[in-house]
Amino acid sequence: METQTKKTLNYPFIILTGFGVVATLIFIFLFVYQLSVGKVRQEALIEYAYPKITPQEYFNELKNVCQKNKFEFREIVVEENYFLVQIYSKEFIEKAKTLSPSVVPLVIVNLSISPLPDGTAVVGNNPYLWRVMIENKEVDTFAKDYAELVKLLLNDVYYSVKQKKKTI
């Protein structure tokens, strides 16, 4: 007669394998989530730190540079060392209207100008973030161009202040 042996399941192996698979999935989820959230946060804000200038100098020069580049400048909060302003281009608002009504708000950029220990911090909303919300090649190009223009404008303000300080 044949002896039949009944095979038993290896429960410790099954439990450890299941735990490993679940832990791996949780790790991957958290890693991908943190990576994506970090990327969105990075794209959502324009952040600059400019050394050796005061917020007041930056604010005054921003007014001049906006006027030269045909940008509208609106003061929201003006305090001794803190400024909250809006800048936008009427030309770009007209272009945005032709693309889509939902694109128009991207043209308005809110900027916070505040002091740092040795300089000035400028933080604002990034118009390029709208390319994520509205999937359209034209909107993507428009948002990218406008975001680059705003960044150039903000850097131009710093270099203009720096140049004026050199000449004085």
Compact overview of the structure:
The protein has 168 residues and is α+β, with helices and mostly antiparallel strands.
What can you tell me about this protein's structure?
This protein has 168 residues and is α+β, with helices and mostly antiparallel strands. The protein has five helices and five strands. It has helices spanning 11-44, 55-68, 90-99, 130-133, 137-167, and strands spanning 45-51, 72-78, 83-88, 109-116, 119-125. A hairpin with a 2-residue loop joins strand 4 (109-116) and strand 5 (119-125). The N and C termini lie far apart (109 Å). The model has no long low-confidence stretch (mean pLDDT 88).
Major sheet: size, sense and barrel closure?
Answer: 5 strands, antiparallel
**How much helix, percentage-wise, in residues?**
55-70%
Distance between the termini: 109 Å
Nearest-angstrom radius of gyration?
Answer: 26 Å
Q: Poorly predicted ranges (pLDDT <50, ≥5 residues)?
A: none
Which structural class fits the helix and strand makeup? Answer: alpha+beta
What's the β-strand tally? 5
Beta content comes to 15-25%
How much is the average pLDDT? 88
Element order: H for helix, E for strand: HEHEEHEEHH
Treating each run of at least 4 consecutive H or I residues as one helix, how many helices? Answer: 5
The side-by-side strand order for the widest beta sheet comes to 1-5-4-3-2
What best-fitting shape do the alpha-carbon axes yield? Answer: elongated
